Amino acid sequence: MLGDEGIATAVPDPAAAPGAEVLAVDETPAPEPPAPPAFTARPGVELWLVLGLSLGQSAVYALLNIWNRLTVEVALNQQSSSLNNSVTPDRPWLDLAYQLANIAFPLVPALLALYLLGRSGRELIGLTHGRIRPLPDLGWAAALAAGIGLPGLAFLAGARLLGLNTHVVPSNLAAAWWTVPVLLLAAAMNGILEEVVVIGFFYARCWALRWNTAVIVLASALIRGSYHLYQGFGSFAGNAIMGVVFGLFFVKTKRVAPLILAHFLMDAAVFVGYPLLAPWILATPWLAWLI
Questions:
Q1: pTM for the model
Q2: If you compute the radius of gyration of the chain from its CA atoms, what whole number of angstroms results?
């Protein structure tokens, strides 16, 4: 019987009958297989690739979109930007499938970012930094959401009044039993994608490139604002300010989870609240201009 340690060969045995051969084992160890090459992180290349597959690509299209909006005859504040749109409103099950696909695939770049960070031996940027702290994280998330979300809505309303922003329609889904769950999933997707990529991964890779922290905060905030530029200049400025606040929080705490939760809370409130409040706002004369 052959073993892993050596090779069986036929050699003559002096004690055996003439002409007979007996199997003996060669004790020479087999050569070890070559070790796989060590993973070498290339932070600059990884940063460009992840951004190019996700929010950097969105920023380019947002720039083209605002260019298009500014070169038509309709004033910017008379145009609308609609989020969470139905694809096949007359076929709700197919529409649901489209919505779930539109939620699932944008998460792939965030998963890629986490994978690359894990391969380079870094902690997963606050998602696993230290022990799990659900209550403090939720408390910080609620404070951030309230402190940014409410002034942000007023800021966008003022920007539209000045002609600097489109009318943003947060939800344009057909009414169905799955509408609210899908809107909540969309809010979660936005929080995970944006905060993992433009905060956690961006900061980790820029620190690896030895960028100054102040430059990283500013660059991350400008990227965040740029992929909202299709909505108008108010959305650009408001989201850039949000990016600065979130960035400073991350520099201080190194935790992404509170930022994901805060982003989710803000988007969930707007996505779900808009369909409920829009009819009442339209019926209120001094608020109707918001719609």
A1: 0.82
A2: 28
